[in-house]
Automatic annotation (TrEMBL):
Keywords: Coiled coil. This is Abhydrolase domain-containing protein mpaH. InterPro entries: AB_hydrolase_fold. Residues 355-382 form a coiled coil. SUPFAM superfamilies: alpha/beta-Hydrolases. Gene3D superfamilies: alpha/beta hydrolase. It comes from Lachnellula suecica. It comes from the Eukaryota. Residues 388-410 are annotated as: Disordered.
């Protein structure tokens, strides 16, 4: 990358996994995250107010594929007079570089990073997530409402209802996708013939070939070089880990009669008797969108099957509209001609939209910070640490000890 120095980190994952089958027995506390920190070469002395971006990946794609977007952001931010402190992005535990680190411990099934590196990530922080990564950042903002000042959600897989057969549009072809090639060159030639990959920005495709594939041997494919001396390659994120991110089986994989194993354990709207898979988190996050505090920009692909007009409208209007939310101030941008993977197909359009939004958000953050500090620091420290007279005037006079209602409360 022309504009950044890249620092690799390895961080421990949370010690408990949600599903027992997500890890092999004995590996519950051993999973790690592969994290990359991008530091602008021109900003070796960051100042207060320099923005930190927290990225989150789409399902099945390594974190390095967003580097063209980071380069584009840097150039556009510089023209806008805004400085980047750094960009942080991790592969989720079961995919990409993290999946390689955890290869022996994975089964078939972000806040920690900001805590471990908090000295290098002061406010303001802005999240940029693509696809399921956007869902992860929305969830993070619900867990820690003030951690991220703003959110950029790029064609998020947040769904109005619990996904059933509609998610098969992604899981079905991935179930039968090719995952072994005689060489990296052969894989690149195969991708070049595919309309799916032809839609990507060439810079993104190059990074997919470099980081989306890994050489054998692996745990699944222990073989080495082929007879002609070439080294075969396979997917860095295994096919199993990709499809199990789309949907989970709602049947007992150990039962010979394949009866639904969750019958009677989940609400009726989660399970479809005719379709033995489920993935309720996408709809769960939609129901929580009113409580999202950060201001949000949605970037949708006009041809994305996950973002029909009614869905786009529902997400945008719901975001921040609740009592705990940041107000109904979510914005929407529709990128014409783009599918679900907008960030890979239309890098320049996404970069332009992000910087326009981020500039406004940073201007607002700076103004609010200055105004707060001016008012707050206008009073002495001892005053700021106590209940003031304005509080007492508004809460009312001290109650009499003889008041019956007070005695009853005590």
């Amino acid at each position: 990358m022309s504009h950044f120095n890249i620092i690799n980190h390895t961080s421990r994952c949370q010690h408990t996994r949600h599903w027992r089958r997500a890890v092999e027995p004995g590996f519950e506390s051993s999973l790690k995250l592969a994290v990359k920190q991008y530091v602008p070469k021109s900003n070796d002395e960051p100042r207060a107010g320099d923005v930190t971006f927290v990225g989150a990946i789409a399902n099945g794609f390594p974190k390095e594929m967003y580097e063209p977007l980071w380069d584009d952001l840097y150039e556009r931010m510089a023209k806008a007079g805004k400085r980047i402190r750094g960009i942080w992005i991790a592969d989720v535990a079961h995919q990409g570089g993290s999946g390689v680190l955890n290869e022996k411990g994975l089964g078939n099934d972000l806040a920690d990073d900001s805590k471990l590196h908090q000295d290098e990530m002061p406010a303001p922080l802005i999240g940029i997530g693509s696809s399921v990564g956007a869902v992860h950042l929305a969830h993070l903002s619900l867990l820690h409402p003030s951690l991220l000042h703003s959110l950029v959600l790029i064609d998020p897989t947040i769904q109005i209802s619990n996904p059933r057969k509609d998610f098969a549009a992604f899981a079905l072809p991935s179930t039968y996708r090719r995952e072994l090639w005689p060489s990296r060159k052969a894989a690149a030639e195969s991708f070049a013939k595919s309309k799916y990959y032809q839609a990507w920005n060439p810079r993104v495709l190059d990074l997919w070939i470099k980081h989306g594939l890994r050489e054998l041997p692996t745990e699944i494919y222990p073989g080495g070089k082929s007879g002609n001396g070439e080294t075969p390659v396979t997917l860095t994120t295994t096919k199993a880990q990709e499809v199990l991110t789309y949907i989970r089986p709602a049947y007992n994989t150990y039962s010979p009669n394949d009866k639904l194993s969750f019958e009677g354990m989940l609400p009726d709207d989660v399970l479809d008797p005719t379709y033995p898979f489920y993935r309720p988190e996408a709809a769960q996050i939609f129901r929580q969108l009113p409580d999202v505090k950060p201001h949000a920009l949605y970037i949708f692909g006009s041809k994305s099957p996950l973002s029909p007009p009614e869905g786009r409208k529902a997400k945008t209007e719901a975001t921040g509209s609740g009592v705990l939310g940041g107000g109904k101030r979510a914005k929407e941008l529709l990128v014409e001609g783009a599918g679900h993977l907008v960030a890979f197909e239309k890098v320049e359009a996404v970069g332009e939209a992000v910087v326009r939004f981020v500039k406004e958000e940073l201007d607002t953050w700076e103004k609010e910070k200055e105004e707060f500090e001016r008012r707050y620091m206008s009073r002495e420290r001892i005053e700021r640490a106590q209940i003031d007279e304005a509080w007492k005037e508004r809460i009312g006079p001290a109650p009499s000890k003889e008041r019956k209602d007070v005695k009853e409360k005590l």
